[in-house]
Write a structure and sequence with these properties.
By secondary structure, the protein is mainly alpha-helical. The protein contains four helices and no strands.
Length: about 60
């Protein structure tokens, strides 16, 4: 059921919101994504936050 829902998402804004809520641990970062109106800017910010989260986890040894 969940996979069906995920594959049905065609709206980039909805995808950004879903990924940010599911993956970003920082509430301020999630709020920034939700408040960003322009889709391209929203997606770019999401990518920046995700890359920062990956770097942080690599430094802490969670992704080794």
């Amino acid at each position: 059921e969940i996979l069906g829902y995920l594959t049905s998402i065609t709206d980039p804004e909805q995808a950004a919101d879903l990924v940010s809520c599911a993956v970003l641990p920082d509430a301020a970062e999630r709020q920034t994504i939700l408040e960003t109106l322009e889709v391209e800017t929203r997606l770019r910010r999401l990518v920046q936050f995700l890359l920062a989260e990956i770097r942080k986890r690599r430094k802490s040894g969670q992704y080794e």
